[in-house]
Amino acid sequence: MFRPARSGRQNIRCWRPRPAPMSKFVLSLLLAAVLSGTAQAAPPQRVISTNLCADQLVLGLLPRDRIAAVSPLAADPSLSAAASTARGLPVVMPSAEDVIRHRPDLVVAGSFRERKAAEIVARQGIAVHRLPAPDSLAATHAMIRALAARLEVPEAGDAMIADLTRQLADAQASGGMGRTALVWRPNGYTSGPQSISGEILAAVGFRNLAGDLGVSRSGTLSVEAVLAAKPDVLVLDEHMNQATSRAQALVVHPALAALAAERRRVPTAAWICAGPSLADAARALAAS
Fold first, then answer.
1. Are strands 2-4 and 10-12 parallel, antiparallel or unpaired?
2. In sequence order, which residues have a C-beta less than 8 Å from that of residue 256 and are 6 or more positions away?
3. What are the tens digits of pLDDT across the range 180-189?
4. Are residues 182 and 274 in the same domain?
5. Of the candidates 168, 185, 211, which is a domain's last residue?
């Protein structure tokens, strides 16, 4: 508003609105937002893992009182390297309904089979951490660090990686000494040098012949190709060396009896998942 000054000049005063008092409703909303942010920042206390590989990482990083449930395979010693740790924990089926029923504050899931269930769970406001499918030891380390950070136990993640690295180094000291090897799995699947299994073979000192046969990461070989390659060592998964299916029958094909290669059996649970159990695979390969 304008008022003439006594001096004859105009003195301009700007009108400024006074801030309205903040309503109780707005204050309550702000307080709720602050409290909600605080709650979200707290470490998850009811963690569920929904597949075998998630189980082994969660069991290795968290105390039992922070684990609400694990997958049905967690306590299977033929597949799970953490079977003894998993015994006695509640089991969750890989369905959205069962996961929600356990009231988790974080679900650790894989990237593929549980994708649909994980999406439904996330829509219910439950946090979901999806594990990647690492294809190297470096990617495995990154996966462990990321999960440990999400669980807010970074020191446990660093310790897990350090222990795995140390054990691989120990296995290398008594390993393959330059001998040739081939991984031989059901349906003729093998692992090339640019795979986790291939890195474990190299860490122990073996030369992986799969690369010479055109397999860099993973692929299949015929029985004839294996016979012609003449590896010093044929690496078999421990619980898959019986002809209980058509796929497994190839592993024990009669023609392979003519192969003079030493057979070394690695517990399937040791390298079915990328994680700390890879050290067990290295020890099995290094054993003479």
1. antiparallel
2. 223, 226, 227, 234
3. 999 999 889 9
4. yes
5. 168
